[in-house]
Amino acid sequence: MGRPSARERKPYNIDALLDVAVRVFLRRGYDGASLDQVAAAAGITKASIYYHVDGKEALLKLGVARALDALFAVLDEPAAREGRALTRLRHVVRRTVEITVARLPEVALLLRVRGNTETERWVLDQRRRFDRLIAEIVAEAQAGGELRRDIDAALATRLLFGMLNSITEWYRPEGGMGGEEIAEAAIKIAFEGLR
Amino acid sequence: MGRPSARERKPYNIDALLDVAVRVFLRRGYDGASLDQVAAAAGITKASIYYHVDGKEALLKLGVARALDALFAVLDEPAAREGRALTRLRHVVRRTVEITVARLPEVALLLRVRGNTETERWVLDQRRRFDRLIAEIVAEAQAGGELRRDIDAALATRLLFGMLNSITEWYRPEGGMGGEEIAEAAIKIAFEGLR
Fold first, then answer.
1. Does the beta-carbon distance from A194 to B160 stay under 8 Å?
2. Is residue B135 part of a domain?
3. Which end of chain B is less packed: N or C, by CB atoms within 10 Å?
4. pLDDT band for position A44 (50/70/90)?
5. pLDDT tens digits, residue range B85-122?
6. What DSSP line would sit under B5-31, residue for residue?
């Protein structure tokens, strides 16, 4: 999945500019990062950034949308809509890991948004909407006797996706491990446990 | 567990100043936060901060040490040192959740440190040291046939503690759920799975 690093190509279009902006936001924190730093990292002027977007919040929204669009698209896939709830949940877990590994910086940024600006609060709303849709599948699997019922569905969802989301904190593509291996391990732990 | 909020008491001593600093670092991001913001939130002058500490990095180190000291102390507890590896691992998982809930801001800050300064890199080193010690217990439990061996010990540790660490992202003390309920759910999922 390796996409070219920020330094390997000129950010002369919005996609390349977003690649750079996402990395600067991750490195400095969104609050701590300035458009000047994004411009410097991109090797262009701040005026050039304003040619593409309205400012820092627009860069955040577009960057995070790469992750959000991919994650919500999973819920529209046939395997996430048809069949038994547990099978659908497994599919969503596997695809979430795949997207996290393929879109590592964007998913990491999505998860680090705090809520200090209107755009950040919009992002948090989207995250909550995604969590609710997953919790519904978990509750359905519990109601159908496919998952244990002695753990609250919302709590189980948070712990399960907490495990998946942690990938953004420790996964390094150059480490040799693939998304497939991580997805397999996560599915085993989540549904069968470590024992 | 509820400690008084930053606004409820004057930060006239180092402990109270740290309470405020940790919260400001969390809200603005450590990189984005300034000593001026800490001073304003504490209702004291920047000179008063320098009476207590050398500066922003010292505040980070002392704040994060609250979490690190508590977590490393768990590994010295008899229940983490004596007995079967799986029993010890369960104990460490349960105590990690307890500490995360009791020291929520400090553990959250610990997990959000990025590594832009010498202190932050020291924090990352401590986190890696803790992870290695846990991975050793996981590997021991695998070697003894107490845990499944088809998942790499380091990967299993990362996913397991990723799940626990996620508590800092979604737990709200005012939500009514206690650390005990979360610890029970996390132990069930981790060792038995959701099925």
1. yes
2. yes
3. N
4. very high
5. 999 999 999 999 999 999 999 999 999 988 889 999 99
6. PGGGS---SHHHHHHHHHHHHHHH-TT
Q: How far apart are CA B71 and CA B61, in angstroms?
A: 15
Q: Do A190 and B193 touch (CB under 8 A)?
A: yes
User: What does the pLDDT read at residue A141?
Assistant: 96
The answer to whether the CB of A105 falls within 8 A of the CB of A23 is yes
Q: How many CB atoms lie within 10 A of CB A87?
A: 14
pLDDT, position A8: 45
**A2 by DSSP, 3-state: which?**
coil
Q: Residue B68: pLDDT band by 50, 70, 90 thresholds?
A: very high
Question: Domain for residue B48, yes or no?
Answer: yes
Boundaries of domain holding B131 = 6-192
* pLDDT score at A5: 52
A164, A107 in Cβ contact below 8 A? no
pLDDT tens per residue, range A45-94: 999 999 999 999 999 999 999 999 999 999 999 999 999 999 999 999 99
Please report residues of B whose CB lies closer than 8 A to that of A168. none
Domain count across chain B: 1
| Beta-carbon separation of B195 and A192 below 8 A | yes
Q: What is the DSSP letter of B194?
A: -
Domain of A67, CATH number, reads 1.10.357.10
Is B139 among the domain residues? yes
Closest C-alpha to A157, from A111, A99, A89: A89
Chain A residues in contact with B28 by the CB 8 A cut-off are 31-32, 116
> Does the ipTM surpass 0.85?
yes
Structural contact between residues A80 and A91, judged by C-beta atoms closer than 8 angstroms: yes
Q: Sort out which chain B residues have CB atoms less than 8 A from A138's CB and list them.
A: 194
**pTM exceeding the 0.95 threshold for the entire prediction:** no
Which of B182, B154, B147 lies closest to B166 in space, CA to CA? Answer: B182
| B163 part of a folded domain | yes
